[in-house]
Amino acid sequence: MTLLTLVRAPRRAAGVLGRAVASVRDDLDAAVARDPATDSRVEMALASPGLHAIWTHRVSHALWGRGHRLPARLLSQAARAATGVEIHPGATLGRRFFIDHGMGVVIGETAEVGDDVMLYHGVTLGGRSMEPVKRHPTLGDGVTVGAGAKVLGNIVLGHGAQVGANAVVTKDVPAMCVATGVPAKVRACEPGVDPQHALYDEPALWI
Predict the structure, then answer these.
(1) Which residue segments constitute the domains of the chain, with CATH numbers given?
(2) How far apart are CA 159 and CA 161, in angstroms?
(3) Quick count: other Cβ atoms within 10 Å of Cβ 137?
(4) Considering only CA atoms, which of 71, 69, 88, 183 is closest in space to residue 127?
(5) For the residues of 76-112, what is the DSSP string, one character each?
(6) Which residues of 153-190 are buried (b: 16+ CB within 10 A; e: fewer)?
(7) Upstream peptide bond of 71 is cis (omega within 30 degrees of 0)
(8) Contact 178, 186 (CB under 8 A)
(9) pTM of structure
(10) Which residues pair with 178 in a beta bridge?
(11) Tens digit of pLDDT for each residue in 54-64?
(12) DSSP state, 144?
């Protein structure tokens, strides 16, 4: 080990720690902004099972990516037991992701979740294939999925899409559109219409 390596190691460690702290702060701010039941970072950090599951996943995902698959799975199972949220360590989660309430959420191995996404309790990002391929959904940035919804298969929810409570989605949902029902159908997808405002025009989307 060279002297240069010894000098650089603390800097790398400080950089990693700084990024981790910034990520936690981002997650907390996003959670507080989306949860009207609290305005406290401390309360959210201590009492949000969704955040605890996400933070544990970030560690298990890092282990998974380094080839430590059994420890990653064991850590994810411990998080499931503690929070009621099951996130496979292979899943990819974006920044400022928030799971409200948490209980019953399942996110499969090949799921990809963008930035600023929000899931409510009972949501499944599941597969429709037994083959070892990309078999779980991809969620773009700013997607919201309502309580009890099932998003199944290698499909894409475009950025800003909204999925109604208890919907079963098996086909792509275009960006900035609203999908509700069983099977889910696109209910609102008009230029210039904010899907968040469409919540109030479509009772099935209430979450």
Answers:
(1) 3-205 (2.160.10.10)
(2) 6
(3) 30
(4) 88
(5) HHHHHHHHS-EE-TT-EE-TT-EESS-TT-EE-TT-E
(6) bbbbbbbbbbbbbbbbbeebbebbbbbbbeebeebbbe
(7) no
(8) yes
(9) 0.84
(10) 162, 188
(11) 999 999 999 99
(12) E
